[in-house]
Design goal:
CATH architecture of the largest domain: 3-Layer(aba) Sandwich
Number of domains: 2
CATH superfamily of the largest domain: Bacterial extracellular solute-binding protein, family 7
Strand order of the largest sheet: 2-1-3-10-4
Strand content: 15-25%
Bound molecules: (2S)-2-hydroxy-2-methyl-3-oxobutanoic acid
Order of helices and strands: HEHEHEHHHEEEHEHEHEEHHHEHH
Length: about 350
């Protein structure tokens, strides 16, 4: 054997001996948790709750640090899912919308008017459909842990009150990162432009776009009335759940007891996010809506008939996207919604 080969073999053996020692030091100095928004929002608050619970219960061994603003992917929320898979992100609480470019089934929650009320969201996320979605995420290489909620995405704009699809005509809207939103807004005669949340606020401020859609908790915390958003219509067309996930390798580096701590804490934090996201939006407590009105914003509440006009206009988009999401999954979701316990 040549001397060079012998040296190579020896150094390979040395490496093999060295590895178990390195593996013992299994904890990273920090585990990077990605979210779109920070602690002023239920979403970011939930991230903080999760991190604190895990730090306490693992005596500081699993040290989660939150990176809001999807800063680990330079603010491009549509790249978050890929970055989790690749290990650039260790943990995330992500919106189904932002991961739907990679996981087409997540567009389910963006089908216009699939979920008429909170009981319908729960029927999906807490039932068989939720399990199916988790299995799909697992197949795509991440470890799903718990559900949270961003909320019902209400349409806002600077120009006029919206009561009918005709009122949408010609208005420029910032939409989120799945093409289903472009198609939904186009079906209503509006001009949608896809952009990140980071770009949305300056675009609203400069008047480059007239409107956007987001939950009222986002509207309030981001003070969207200060960027010209004087009209809100409560149309409840889609709601985006949040999903807590872990990168697979990171997950597997933890003991079963540690995994249980991380998962249980995710479930607790998720329940708290859902509570915060719904606060003041369910009768008799409608304080979040009156808070928006107190800002001088005109809040339009649609009658059943007015809402139906939006349902009709967007129906072709619903039908087209049902095919790409998967007719079986959509059918299952429709059945679960129809069978929900109405509160
Ligand atoms: O970009 C948005 O509108 C936001 C913050 O709601 C999401 O990340 C889906």
């Amino acid at each position: 054997m040549k001397r060079r080969n012998l040296l190579l073999m020896l150094s390979a053996a040395a490496l093999a001996f060295a590895l178990p020692a390195a593996a013992q030091d299994k904890y990273q100095a920090e585990y990077r948790l990605s979210t779109v928004v920070g602690t002023a929002f239920p979403w970011g608050k939930g991230g903080e709750i999760w991190a604190n619970l895990v730090r306490e219960r693992t005596n500081g061994k699993i040290n989660i640090k939150m990176y809001p603003g999807v800063s680990l992917v330079a603010g491009d929320q549509t790249r978050e899912f890929t970055a989790i898979r690749q290990g650039v992100i260790d943990l995330a609480i992500g919106s189904t919308i932002n991961w739907s470019p990679q996981i087409k089934e997540l567009n389910l929650f963006s089908l216009p008017f699939l979920m008429p009320d909170y009981a319908a969201i729960d029927a999906l996320t807490q039932g068989e459909v939720g399990k199916d979605i988790f299995r799909i995420l697992e197949k795509n290489g991440v470890v799903p842990l718990a559900w949270g909620e961003n909320g019902y995405r209400e349409v806002t704009n600077s120009k006029r009150p919206i009561r009918s699809p005709a009122d949408m005509k010609g208005l420029k809207f910032r939409v989120v990162g799945s093409p289903i939103f472009n198609e939904t807004f186009t079906a209503m005669g509006a001009n949608p432009t896809q952009m990140s949340w980071a770009d949305a606020q300056p675009a609203l401020a400069s008047g480059a776009v007239d409107g956007q859609e987001n939950p009222l908790t986002m509207f309030n915390a981001a003070k969207l009335h200060t960027v010209g958003q004087k009209n809100v219509t409560l149309w409840g067309y889609v709601a985006d759940p949040l999903i807590f996930v872990a990168n697979k390798e990171v997950w597997e580096s933890w003991s079963p007891a540690e995994r249980k701590i991380v998962k249980d804490a995710a479930v607790e934090a998720g329940q708290q996010i859902i509570q915060m996201a719904r606060k003041g939006l369910i009768a008799p407590d409608l304080s979040t809506i009156s808070d928006v009105e107190k800002l001088g914003v005109n809040v339009v509440k649609l009658s059943a008939g007015e809402r139906e006009a939006f349902v009709k206009t967007t129906r072709p988009v619903y039908q087209k996207w049902s095919k790409s999401i998967g007719p079986d999954l959509v059918g299952k979701a429709e059945k679960a919604v129809a069978a929900r316990r109405k509160s």
